[in-house]
Amino acid sequence: MSTPENLRYTKEHEWLSDVVDGVATVGITEFAANALGDVVYAQLPAVGDTVTEGETCGELESTKSVSDLYSPVSGEIVEANQDVVDDPALVNTAPFEGGWLFKVRISEEPKDVLSAEEYTKLTAGN
Amino acid sequence: MSTAPRLTALDALHRSLGATMTDFAGWDMPLRYASERDEHNAVRTKAGLFDLSHMGEITLTGPEAVKALDYALVGNISTVGVGRARYTHICQEDGGIVDDLIVYRLGETEYMVVANASNAQVVLDALTERAAGFDTEVRDDRDAYALIAVQGPESPGILASLTDADLDGLKYYAGLPGTVAGVPALIARTGYTGEDGFELFVAPEHAVELWQALTKAGEGVGLVPAGLSCRDTLRLEAGMPLYGHELTTALTPFDAGLGRVVKFEKEGDFVGRAALEAAAEKAATKAPRKLVGLIAEGRRVPRAGFPVTFGGEVIGEVTSGAPSPTLGKPIAMAYVDAEHAAPGASGVGVDIRGTHEPYEVVALPFYKRQK
């Protein structure tokens, strides 16, 4: 399973990209996508919404269950991935690329994020 | 319970195929191998291969096996010919459904009852107790069989390439002993997917060999291994009830819209007769709730236990719900107050985590295959 080195991760299985001009991209990990199964519906935060690190900001629905989406960082939403809303399966097929979920203008540095190595350890054995 | 889950004879094979496993009624079963939607679509358009070895087989033999079954079950088992099968229920004295079953008549005086994994012990105990006064032996055959199903439009061709058995002569809800890929098997034309297909009961030591032969035979026509996740969406689209969801001990077959399985005309008493006669009358005159289909107008998925609402009032409850790969929309089965149960009833919705999502009431099933 892939866990890109250049991303940061949360215990809730979101990933957070490098910050470019104050904006970072957020998605869920391949591990999480595999655990969910086929994602059929993504409710993403809207542009302009304020999100808070560790708090729910949307939901992902799969065949078997619905899972809350947690924001890995605090800030303001500047873009939600309309491609994922139209075709939620992108979360399964390309969780680190075309299946990204939203972009957020960061208001403060995240406190509770993991490196790729730490995240890999967290999910090992599952 | 702290006991380790039971493993089927195909367990190592599932793991080698990368299956995501799940605990189901005390068994470790494949939930899906890759995408459950792809597996679902393969069964609808090509074929899927299932391990159903968790199902519980119970055999009744002896001169009064059929009398015992007619007494123990609500169906008319006396009318089942050799080589045929019947869908039926076993009920409590109060009419509540203990389980839904398929009974196969394997010989003149030999019947195999297939129960749901979660109820197999309860059904075995009930059959043993109810058969006590009859000249029959009730045998626990749960460990005697592995069960492999091949389902989907390509399944007759796949199976035909591995057996000399007369599949054309094998009708829906029939079963005959034969040989598949050199392995002795009971070949049944049954399933739980809404597609044509077969269920193959074999000795566990032959399961891997049979699975591999079927996999190879289906290679060129799109056969894929399929898990319990797609089995659930397939049966839901086909409007087939699942024990613990649409069927429970709190409901009679009449409550579940399956009164046709109860055969009052059969000779002799049977367990639940008096209560079921009352239930039949009540269902005909003042049914409190009816089992209906719901199709979402939006994209949020209803789940078992979610309230069905109308004008802010709870008028029913979802028993099963999932995104339907065939319809491309969320669907559900639900028990709904009779006055809102007519197809097309307006204003009905499902409360999905606090939001009223509009749903269309439809007759079941959602999907019926073209024959």
TrEMBL record, chain A:
PANTHER family: GLYCINE CLEAVAGE SYSTEM H PROTEIN (PTHR11715), GLYCINE CLEAVAGE SYSTEM H PROTEIN-RELATED (PTHR11715:SF3). This is Glycine cleavage system H protein. Residues 23-105 form the Lipoyl-binding domain. Its cofactor is (R)-lipoate. Binds 1 lipoyl cofactor covalently. Pfam families: GCV_H (PF01597). It comes from Streptomyces virginiae (Streptomyces cinnamonensis). Keywords: Lipoyl. HAMAP family: GcvH.
From TrEMBL, chain B:
Residues 12-266 form the GCVT N-terminal domain. The glycine cleavage system is composed of four proteins: P, T, L and H. The keyword Signal does not apply. InterPro entries: GcvT, GcvT/YgfZ/DmdA, GcvT/YgfZ_C, GcvT_bac, GcvT_C, GCVT_N, TrmE/GcvT-like. Keywords: Aminotransferase, Transferase. This is Aminomethyltransferase. SUPFAM superfamilies: Aminomethyltransferase beta-barrel domain (SSF101790), Folate-binding domain (SSF103025). Residues 289-368 form the Aminomethyltransferase C-terminal domain. Belongs to the GcvT family. PANTHER family: AMINOMETHYLTRANSFERASE, AMINOMETHYLTRANSFERASE, MITOCHONDRIAL. It is an enzyme of class 2 (transferase). It catalyses: N(6)-[(R)-S(8)-aminomethyldihydrolipoyl]-L-lysyl-[protein] + (6S)-5,6,7,8-tetrahydrofolate = N(6)-[(R)-dihydrolipoyl]-L-lysyl-[protein] + (6R)-5,10-methylene-5,6,7,8-tetrahydrofolate + NH4(+). The glycine cleavage system catalyzes the degradation of glycine. It holds the Pfam family GCV_T_C. It comes from the Bacteria. Its EC number is 2.1.2.10. The keyword RNA-binding does not apply.
